[in-house]
Amino acid sequence: MTDFPFDIVLFDLDGTLVDSALDLGPAINVALAAEGRRSVPLAEIRQLIGGGAGIMLERALEATGGAVSEARFDELLEVVLEQYWAHIADNTVLYDGVLQALDELASRGCTLAVCTNKAEEPARELLGKLGIAQRFAAIYGGDTLGRENAKPAPDMLLAAIADCGGGRAAMVGDTTYDVRAAKAAEIPVVVFTGGYLDAVPEEIGADALMPHFTELPSALDGLAVY
Ligand SMILES: O=C(O)COP(=O)(O)O
Ligand SMILES: [Mg+2]
């Protein structure tokens, strides 16, 4: 036990630890091209990220002409996932200050975990390629506990907290999926405003907003433990 208010910090992945839009975008656009659709520009792609690859594809199809049949959707999702796997870390980078923030939290005695709606296998692959997988005591993906239990459900947050030995926990994320999951898990949430934000920051429901990762330790320090 330290004087830091949290024992466990849970992190979202896409739009929080990593800027992955430059690899997710092309994967979506290959699938759209296979369906004869226009590409979705990068600025629009960022707004589609947060619910997992399936929701991203669903929204991209809606934005470019409408839904396809369920069977065709499954084929196109396979295209997205194959393309993404082949280029998972080509252009994806950690956000500025992430490594230092993780170091700082670890030095304050926090156990760290990842709770992402990206599937667990690509999440582990990406974290490994970026050299930070070993920093996390638990890594949960959107499929780990079944898609129906992905964020905004609290299940993966609660499971990760248990894996980390239990204690005072907080969530760090970038979208309403993270905020709703944290509220359902009854833990406070810091929102990174440099991520993909699917709502106005002031109205997203965060306990604290963080424009840069250097501010994470002090943002957490200022939060009340629920
Ligand atoms: O890939 C996505 O759409 C969501 O991933 P995230 O939960 O790490 O933001
Ligand atoms: Mg995110």
From TrEMBL:
Give cofactor(s), names only.
Answer: Mg(2+)
Please state the pathway this protein functions in, per its UniProt record: Organic acid metabolism; glycolate biosynthesis; glycolate from 2-phosphoglycolate: step 1/1
Q: Is the keyword Magnesium assigned to this protein? A: yes
Q: Which reaction does it catalyse?
A: 2-phosphoglycolate + H2O = glycolate + phosphate
The catalytic activity of this protein is classed by the Enzyme Commission as 3.1.3.18
Q: Name one GO biological process term.
A: DNA repair
Protein keywords: Carbohydrate metabolism, Hydrolase, Magnesium, Metal-binding
Which InterPro entries is this protein grouped with? Answer: HAD-like_hydrolase_sf, HAD-like_sf, HAD-SF_hydro_IA, HAD_sf, PGP-like_dom2, PGPase_prok
Provide the function of this protein. Specifically catalyzes the dephosphorylation of 2-phosphoglycolate. Is involved in the dissimilation of the intracellular 2-phosphoglycolate formed during the DNA repair of 3'-phosphoglycolate ends, a major class of DNA lesions induced by oxidative stress.
PANTHER family, sorted: PHOSPHOGLYCOLATE PHOSPHATASE
Protein name according to UniProt:
Phosphoglycolate phosphatase
Supply the source organism for this entry: Aurantiacibacter gangjinensis
